[in-house]
Amino acid sequence: MENEERWEAEANRLDIQNRVRNLMWTVSQDYELDIEVDQESWQKSKYIAFYDAVRHGGFARYFSTEEYEAYITKRVYAGWEPSVLLALGKLCIDCAVYKKLEKERRGISSIRRRAMRDTLEKDSMRLTHTDWGNIEACYLRYMLDGTEADERNQRLIDLICTLEDAEDTLQIVNCLSRVYESAYAKGFTKKFKGLSEELMDSGEENKEYTDKEYLEEESRESEDEHKVNLFTDELMEEEDMMNRHKANVIVLDEESSSRMEEYVERNYGKSYLSAQEQKHQNSQICRGNHEGSRLHFTDGLLHGELQDSAKAEYVKKVRDENLKVLNLNQMVTRQNVQMLANTLKRALLTRNEKEVVSSEYGSICARKLWNLGRTDNRRLFEREIIRDNTDFAVEVLIDASGSQQGRQALVALQGYIISEALSIVKIPQRVMGFCTFGDFTIMQRFRDYEDDRAANERIFEFYGSANNRDGLAVRAAAESLEMRKEENKILIVLSDGRPNDVIAGSLRDSKKEAYCTDFAVKDTAAEVRKLRNKRVAVLGVFAGEEEDLQAEKKIFGKDFAYIRDIGNFANVVGRYLKRQLLDV
């Protein structure tokens, strides 16, 4: 009986698959085209699944899927959120193809309208959970009966509707970029209190590529290797942001994979480790969930042979913009540095005070002699303890992924405030940034433990790019921190709570689970727990959007700081560091 039910279910699944594919082939007139049918969509509504196939086929017929895939891939490289990009891209594609399809096949109009109604009715949780979900809901209502949305969303819908007469893929991706930047604008910069208004748009002109340049570059991804489903938004979870569907992996082509190390050196700088040291680090650290990954330790492009390259010029430009933000906010920065330094000084002075503790040896304490023969208490003596205030080392680890681009000056400013305060009280510290490109997790050293205070300004070379494999970066930072001679160690992680590495360096790596959403959050949280079990204190400083707060809490537990007002930065971080200095 059970086998019959299983057989019937499989037959039903294959029937659905065939019906959907036949519809897509009919529309696209390309019988080599393929689509993975979403069983959940079918269960909600067969019309949703049918129209997904129609839209897929229509786009393949009238536009270039290769150019669109190249655009998506490189936007993800630049740190754009795949789930948002794909969700908004679906709306742009729909608007670009539906009129063309309806002219040829009248029945498509009724399938489309039924799919839209069913989506509004049966996907209400997803459509109300995020800004871009709300944009989709507004778009569907507008297409069904002309219902206009609020001013902001209607402006975006009107922008999408300009694609009704689109003739090439470049028009679609240009429109998608504008919609994405409006719908998923990084609110951190605009909402962060206490900073000069002049910095709000400073990062816009520091984009590394334009959409036209993306499409002009040759796209060599083969059909077998490219795993992104560009016509659904399955990276989004309808019920729970932390338990999303398994994400797709973007796989690099053979040439990109073989030249990956060359690319990393050209874009991030040569490694300051010897080849043997690098190999040892990889073998010791890149294990478990990070097997097959590689680490690249560098001082950056401005401190090596490639400081005259085009990419180095870009880094100089970003550095100058970051320093401009520092100059515009000198007073608030100085106040934060001084407040944090004073907090640390007071804590260290308290540590220097003599502390009297009960002991089994030392000076006899007359008031405790009554314990003799009456209790098992052997602590009848007292002795003075003076704790060493030089037995601390701090590692500051900064997420330098592309998702930080919109707020990179502010993140650099936070790292600088911490580093300056630690320098004033002479606590040894190292500051590292990290991002992930293909197989490589790049660890950029801004200042080392032995550097003097002047090195702190190198933190303003910080910029966001590529992805972020947080668990591996935390493990790599911990490796060097644990080797320090100081007894007490603190790791401070500035991140946006969104570990995300969905670009695999080879087809073999694509078979692994994508490093994002809940899987990546759990992995990073596990690395933090391991460190705390080794008596390394870990603090997370949240530099992201409110929607990612739950992930940050999962990673760092109660020891994380969420700071929206720069004037309060020193107080919040200072309270944590003071507690660490006094509790050990």
UniProtKB/TrEMBL annotation:
UniProt cross-references to SUPFAM superfamilies, sorted A to Z: vWA-like
Basic and acidic residues bias spans: 204-213
Region annotation Disordered: where it falls in the sequence: 200-225
Residues covered by the Cobalamin biosynthesis protein CobT VWA domain: 390-437
PANTHER family: NORD PROTEIN (PTHR41248:SF1)
Protein name: Cobalamin biosynthesis protein CobT VWA domain-containing protein
Protein species of origin: Blautia producta ATCC 27340 = DSM 2950
